[in-house]
Amino acid sequence: MSSHAEHRRIRVDHSALVCKKGCGYFGNPAWQGLCSKCWREDNQHARSKQVEEDRALAERLQREEEAAYASGQQRALSEASATHLGKAEEKRMSQKSRSVPTVKKFFGSSSKPTLGRDATAAQTKPDASGSLGPQPVVESDQATKHFIDFLKTLQKPGRDIFRQCHSFRHSVAYKKDLGAEELTESIQDFYQSLSDHLNTLYKGTPERVEVVMDEVEKYLTLHLYEQTFCPESSDDEVKDLAIQKRIRDLHWVTVQILCAPLNEEIPAVSDTVVKAITDIIEMDSRRVPRDKLRYITRCSKHIIHGVRRTKREAASADDFLPALIYVVLKANPPRLHSNIQYITRFSNPGRLMSGEDGYYFTNLCCAVAFIEKLDAESLNLSPEDFELYMSGQVSPDRLLGPGRSSPSSSSLRGGPGAEPAGAGAPQTRGRRDPDLPTGPGVQQEQSLHRPERDLIEWSDGMERSVQDVLEGLQLEPRSPETGSQPPSTIDSENADCEGLPPPLQPQTSTCPDRAEADPVPVQAQARVTAGERHLFSGEDIQLACSVPEDPLSGWRYQWFLNGVLVSSSEVYDLKDAQVLQTGGYTCLGEKDIDGWPYVMKSLPSDVLNVHVDGGWVLLQTPTEPLVIEEVLNLTCRVRDDPLLMEVTFYKGDVKNWKQKDKDLVFPRVSLEDQGSYWCKATWVQGYVYHSGQSLPASVTVLDKLTSPVLELEPGRTVVAEGSSMVLKCSTQLHAREQGHGIEYYYMKNGTRLGPASSRDTHTIQSAMKDDTGVYTCKVRVRALNLERWSNELKVEVKPRDRPKRR
Predict the structure, then answer these.
(1) Are residues 756 and 793 part of one domain?
(2) Fewer beta carbons within 10 Å, N or C terminal of the chain?
(3) Angle value at C-alpha 289, between 284 and 293, nearest 5 degrees
């Protein structure tokens, strides 16, 4: 980058990120640069002062009104004693007397709205769940269930907290006429009072207080989301549209103009930018402030990673903010202002004052403020250029000089306006002659002719570049000796067949004596492409068949259930599966071979066992045997996936695991874990508790290395003296571990007979009586750190029977 870029670079004033009162916490533009704590203190002070002034004003007006009323009444009585009042005068006096209670009602405590059972005429009650509008009932019910389960762990304090939160939630739901500020103050006051209570209750454990406050925030905001996000009394929606239009108008701002250290030509950096854009857009779909902050943090971390990959060094705050501005401009997140205000108003205030989430959120607020106030001076541009860019008449790459060009401006991919690769002309395009006239009129006239000139220059550059590439290649014609064989003719390939009679003259096939051998059948492969092999009745599963060795050669497929043909297609869909469709599925392929009078068939596939369960609970286990130290996943499913309250897993008849999650995971399975499993579940459906249990399902666990078996070939235990004795140590390494060497050790009476061997046999050429004893063998796989011992084998060497002398 040139000095232009360095001068134009966006700098971070770190004092703008922290509270203006110097308390050390992060500030927020929505709170006039203060943190939530200082803002609340100032706001409460201002409110109390305003309340006192309003009370004093009300009392003064009340005294004046009462004095006016008393003097008017006295004057009226004196006039009435002198003359008789008419009916019109009496009506005027009655209206005068009713004016005083009106003022009292306006300034008195009775001005507060009355809420409760008697307010049904003036207030519209929410639904039974306490939520307003079309809030998803399922999500709210799950939030309540999760909140209750969490509070159960707190025992008695948990009941207190739930009662307070439940009561506060319903009181807020009834107050439909609350403005955005009043609603914010109400919820923040509740957060503060509950936090003070928890700090007293859990003194010395702030982490526990933070966890409870997070759950309270989630419970309240999920139930009150329709009322709190973009309230009707606020102008959030108008500002959302304004900032979206502002970002669209700034579409021309590039990463080079902002001097953001993000080189998107690096694939890894481009991926991080895409992930950052995805996260900041995804923020709008979350309903809890903490979840929205989590996506802001994820977006920011992707940006920092991209900066680090570009610079090959740690990213600084001066690097991060311009990159964040660029991502916001490129993403144009939906309802950006509303999301920021929602987090500011209803998030747990402690989370925004410090920590990782607070820092990144403060930077996002600064980025949005910069975008709203961005002008020509911010980007070190002339006002004329800035207006041309904003109006869309000129693109920035047409007026920026070489010092401001992007790193890719000289590549062949640059398109019209890019400098051709390999061109020797000096890069003068885009520079302005100081002696030439300038101004919007001249610039606009030049910009009208520039695209045509750029297109011609780009075309010439492309032609020269391609010519240079062709001249650099040494292309030679392929000779018949090194190239492909010339096309063969029937006569040349069948010279030995010329003597055959005309009817037997082959036309397209080779001679019988040159015919290829019969094709060797291959095995078909059956697999599950959608769904689970253990499923409920009414669910779907899809099976597919293929011949891996030859998948594109016109195979026709057939599917069989327990040996009975059920389908003649490559893909077999079991829609709304029934219990009768349980069984073993196999498939095979067949096809016609040109020149052969029969149909070629593949070997049947291995059996795919599918179990369709007609009950309410099923246990899903691995469909294939596991090897020790692999992960075992057991899933206890309930039909229609209702809200689970409790799940118990059994092995055999023993209850081993009781939990609330449907998944049970064994990180490192062992041989002891194989066996028969079943589960029992309790769930809520239609506000009614239900319970059920699954059928047993087996789990098979295989050893990586089987225990060796030592035997004496050929299956005997007695050896004649002087004959050969062969010991065989039989073991097997699992197919998934093939490729590792096995070492064999042979022992007699505990003494090793020699060094390690790679052979599974040990031979004694001429057995002697001393070779009688107990033999064992040991196998070892060093790469897997596995070792197994065999059985004990007793061998007896007997002397040969000598012939009797005559």
Answers:
(1) yes
(2) C
(3) 75
Which CATH number fits the domain that encloses residue 788?
A: 2.60.40.10
Question: How many whole angstroms separate alpha carbon 327 and alpha carbon 342?
Answer: 21
Q: Answer whether residue 353 is part of any domain.
A: yes
Per-position DSSP letters for 637-685, written without gaps between them: EETT--EEEEEEEEETTEEEEEESSSEEEESS--GGG-EEEEEEEEEEE
CATH assignment of the domain containing 343:
1.20.1050.80
Q: Say if strands 701-702 and 626-627 run parallel, antiparallel, or are unpaired.
A: parallel
For 223-262, how does the pLDDT look when each residue is reduced to its tens digit (9 = 90+)?
A: 999 889 988 888 899 999 999 999 999 999 999 999 999 9
Q: Are 551 and 580 in contact (CB under 8 A)?
A: no
CB-based burial label for 532 (10 Å; 0-12, 13-18, 19+): middle
The label of the residue with tokens 């033999």 reads 775
Do 197 and 284 lie in one domain? The reply is: no
**Residue 550 counted as domain residue:** yes
CATH number at residue 222: 1.10.246.120
The predicted pLDDT at position 687 comes to 67
pLDDT score, position 799: 84
Contact assessment for residue 644 and residue 680, using Cβ atoms and an 8 Å cutoff: no
Could you tell me if 260 and 373 lie in one domain? Answer: yes
Q: Residue 754 in contact with residue 785, Cβ under 8 Å?
A: no
340 and 261 in a single domain? The answer is yes
DSSP class per residue in 365-428: HHHHHHHHH--TGGGT--HHHHHHHHHTSS-HHHH--GGG--TTTTSGGG-TTSPPTT--S---
Of 724, 731, 725, 718, the residue nearest 759 (C-alpha): 731
Give the pLDDT band of residue 504 (cuts 50, 70, 90): very low
pLDDT of 521 strictly over 90: no
User: What is residue 9's DSSP assignment?
Assistant: P
The number of residues in the chain equals: 806
Q: What is the mean pLDDT of residues 479-500?
A: 45
Backbone angles phi, psi at 80, to 5 degrees: -70, -30
Domain count, the chain: 6
- Which domain, by its residues, includes 608? 520-614
Q: Residue 310 is encoded by which pair of tokens?
A: 């570009």
